Amino acid sequence: MAAAYGWYEHGRDPVSVTNVLTGQRLTVLSRVETGGMVKLQARYQDADLDLTLPLVLRQGEGTASAELDYRWVFAKPPSPGLWRRLDDFLTDALLAWSPNQEFDARYQHVTALGAWQSGVWQHSWQRRFSLSRSSPPAVSVAALPSPWMASLTEAVSWPWRYIDVEHPVSEVSWRWVDGVPQGIRSQVPCLEREGPPAWLFPSRLEPELNRGEDPMGLIYYTLAQAGRAYTFRHHPIANLSLLSVREDDDGKHGTPSYQAWKAIASTLVDAWPCWRAPPRIMPPPVNSRGQHPFGFSAPVGEADLRIQDGFVAGLAHYGFQLSLAQKG
Length: 328
Hints:
Elements: E1 3-5, E2 8-12, E3 15-19, E4 25-34, E5 37-45, E6 50-60, E7 63-69, H1 80-93, E8 107-117, E9 120-132, E10 160-163, E11 175-177, E12 180-182, E13 190-193, E14 198-210, E15 214-225, E16 228-235, E17 239-241, E18 245-247, E19 253-254, H2 258-271, E20 281-282, E21 298-299, E22 306-312, E23 315-324
Parallel strand pairs: 7-8, 17-22
Antiparallel strand pairs: 1-2, 2-3, 3-4, 4-5, 5-6, 6-7, 8-9, 9-23, 10-13, 11-12, 13-14, 14-15, 15-16, 16-17, 16-18, 18-19, 20-21, 22-23
């Protein structure tokens, strides 16, 4: 009998994982154990695709990991739509692999090499996905959203350009004018997409005392696209949580829908490496006397990005993490 987890069913004979809402399926064809790891040949199938790909599994005490290198799958760069369809499924399905089969661990990791980023195929760019099974899902299976599969002809990555401001302000005042956020460029550095219009910028710095003693600056970033604006906080320690997002200016933070979370996370991964290095510094806010009562500043666009909290198998998880390799 197949085991279920979120929108996946896990078969045992043969070993497989199937998204019951999209019909995408990964089936293990063969396995070879060697040198403390397991090499798999697996078959991916959906309504349009049928291809074979290799995977490497490693397992330690309480931890399991899968390694996927797209150079093993494609002799030349895949089309953006093909990559996105395959990548969305594999990086999610491998995290949700059924316990007591290939994976049996509290902590699961998936390392993927190769991705479309800022309109260019980066064959050795590394992303690392993690899930702590000790953190239960934040939504029930009954509330599963509807996933989607990228069209094989879809453009999913576009160039981003960095627009510099030498001396950023601590809080941005901006407004929509004809679908364009006005007032950003003169106040803070920002990233602007050379495709469907989108802007990513630091919108506010918030001083904080970590444990009541360590001063730090927390930057709120805003992603503006398609007439909508999403604001989220980047914490120097906890990094960037996307299960607490403020949409537009309603002042309330909440969990976005799966579709909104996926769109925000994909856009951030595409844009984030384009920040300036070394980064500009966002200054602390001033009081009515023109003083900085809290001397906490923060760099715009940290050298690395960790997206905390997200969706796995259609379930909102506080134990999810997506890490990007550090910028050179």
